[in-house]
Write a structure and sequence with these properties.
Chain lengths: 107, 468
């Protein structure tokens, strides 16, 4: 691959990394199950004892785990984000391999 | 690997007298030397760390959405994050040698790496980018939720993984670690005052023709952190990967222990952005403390009344700017005070003396996280059991009683204050002692350090909330 093509390829990819990362954060935000301080008036805020900084002062510092569900459910998994990350990282690796024809792994 | 130009040797006027007689060279110990020269080092530690990291990321993105039951949250924020500054002060930046992100970067680089030189922009502004990332991540932790939300933590780790993969795929050596990683920036700052020092023997290097430590040879690749041991004047970047110990044909490398913080006394070329990071870390520890203690809610309510909104983004951002800005302004004020005594520009004093705050930074950081480690430590074990479907034992997560933790926090702050105060004094003596301006240069920083220590002590007297 020509030097200039590589440069363009690299710049596009790096811009995409930034864009994708931004999108990831926004999506993760939208998918957020417990946003500290954001659900001040929510009636169920205390279900996540740690969701509001400063509100669950331990009186004795003996933070009991009593009642903690040992089999908590895996809610809120955003597989689009996870899958997107994996796909995107694969794309980076493939592009790097293409930009460097002599690379060992992908000739 | 592309052979980059070896960094220039420092000019004679940049050469510093080293603080004091060095301790025994640890590489004279056969066992230590054999371990560091082994081809298995540090890979043998990297692999298990990477496996644990993979489990933690999986738990964070796909495990329980409640932080209380998530092993990833406990492993990351109750165990790893509090241990990091302790490792840094004892072993310098060794964490970076075994860091899973760097391992991923190394592997990607070996496989498809384009080995491009580091862009000039990164070399020039990398530390500023690290400063900005650090501030942004702390801010987003509070408004989006990273520490207390497993999905937020998982997203952060995936973002960093994307960065290291891109860096390893396109750029040479550990570009990410040296110029972009926010944790690397923090580690570099703390490692300056760490208890280990790697250096080369000037007499041996003087006649060296190979410069294998930088360029690499058949025994080991060149320094991954772009360091040239012959001219390295601080431990901010060296991660003790031991490549140079393996590759140097002249047995020039030495490894010494030193009293933590001595590395801050004689910084050759102080940089404003590095001192800025030191004071920003102080602000970050304040933010973390304030938002976890009992006075936070009254502060938030008062602020809501003043700005007329309950929007947390707005109220937190205002608090954040104040908590980050005040220490920076205070350091500027002290630098201006020192200017009256030593005649140097305020920014020059800022850059020169900002490093002296690192011991207090470290003490505050460790003290804050010691609470999480010792008051919530058992949650790591409990959530680990939950991974295998075991019932979580009822009872306290504390390893140590609160009064004991508080006592340890106060001792740490006292040690940090002494370390910072003495570092400021040594910097003043080294730079202005010849002109008889040591006291005038030191006093403003001495006052600042005492004020910052007092704020830390006050914050640690208040009860703090848990992470888990
Ligand atoms: S450390 Fe070894 S390889 Fe590097 S310049 Fe000195 S003698 Fe040469
Ligand atoms: S100076 Fe030596 S030990 Fe330090 S990072 Fe470079 S090669 Fe590794």
């Amino acid at each position: 691959m020509q030097g200039s093509t590589r440069k363009v390829c690299g710049s596009i990819l790096l811009s995409l990394v930034l864009l994708f990362n931004l999108a990831g954060v926004v999506l993760a935000d939208g998918n957020n199950q417990s946003m500290p301080g954001m659900n001040m008036s929510s009636s169920d805020q205390n279900t996540n004892q740690n969701s509001m900084p400063g509100m669950n002062m331990p009186s004795t510092n003996q933070n009991s785990m009593t009642g903690m569900a040992s089999q908590s459910s895996a809610q809120g998994v955003n597989w689009y984000i996870v899958g997107g990350f994996i796909l995107f990282n694969c794309l980076i690796v493939i592009s790097a391999a293409l930009a460097k024809p002599s690379a060992k792994g992908l000739k | 690997m592309s052979i980059a130009r070896v960094p220039d040797s420092p000019k004679p006027e940049d050469q510093e007298p080293k603080p004091n007689a060095k301790s025994k060279n640890l590489l004279h110990n056969k066992t230590i030397k054999a371990i560091l020269q082994s081809p298995w080092f540090p890979g043998i530690i990297q692999v298990p760390v990477l496996l644990v990291f993979a489990l933690i990321v999986f738990e964070l993105v796909a495990g329980p959405s409640d932080a209380h039951g998530n092993f990833g949250t406990a492993g990351t924020w109750v165990l790893w994050w509090p241990l990091i500054p302790i490792i840094l002060i004892v072993l310098g930046r060794f964490w970076c040698a075994i860091c899973p992100f760097a391992t991923v970067s190394d592997w990607v680089q070996k496989w498809v790496g384009n080995q491009r030189p580091v862009p000039k922009f990164l070399k020039k502004y990398g530390i500023w980018l690290i400063d900005i990332f650090f501030i942004l991540i702390t801010w987003s932790d509070h408004v989006v939720g990273i520490v207390e939300n497993p999905r937020g933590s998982g997203t952060l780790l995936l973002l960093i993984t994307t960065g290291v993969i891109a860096s390893g795929a396109f750029f040479e050596r550990r570009t990410w670690c040296r110029y972009l990683c926010f944790l690397g920036g923090l580690s570099g700052n703390y490692a300056r005052s760490g208890g280990l020092e790697l250096s080369a023997t000037p007499e041996k290097c003087a006649s060296c023709k190979t410069q294998s430590c930088y360029k690499g040879n058949e025994k080991a690749p060149g320094c991954p952190m772009f360091e040239f041991p012959r001219t390295m004047d601080s431990m901010a970047s060296c991660n003790l990967c031991a490549n140079c110990i393996k590759s140097c044909p002249n047995d020039s490398i030495q490894l010494h222990t030193r009293i933590p913080s001595t590395g801050l006394w004689f910084i050759n070329k102080p940089k404003f952005e590095e001192s800025f990071l030191a004071i920003i870390i102080m602000g970050i520890v304040f933010v973390q403390n304030i938002t976890m203690i009992s006075i936070w809610q009254p502060i938030l309510t008062a602020l809501q009344n003043i700005v007329g909104t309950t929007n947390y983004y707005i109220t937190f951002t205002i608090t954040f700017i104040i908590a980050m800005g005040l220490p920076v302004l205070a350091l500027f004020a002290a630098s201006w005070g020192a200017k009256l005594a030593n005649g140097k520009k305020t920014v020059e004093n800022f850059a020169r003396f900002g490093y002296s705050l690192i011991p207090l930074d470290l003490a505050g950081h460790i003290a804050h996280n010691l609470f999480h480690l010792l008051a919530e430590g058992k949650s790591v074990y409990f959530t680990f059991l939950a991974l295998f479907g075991q019932a979580i034992p009822n009872g306290s997560t504390a390893l140590v009683a609160t009064p004991t933790i508080q006592l340890m926090q106060f001792i740490l702050i006292a040690l940090g204050t002494i370390g910072s105060g003495y570092a400021a004094y040594r910097i003043a003596k080294h730079n202005f002692g010849g002109e008889g301006k040591t006291a005038g240069s030191f006093v403003p920083y001495g006052v600042l350090i005492v004020v910052l220590a007092a704020i830390n002590v006050y914050l640690f007297t208040l009860p703090m909330s848990m992470r888990m």
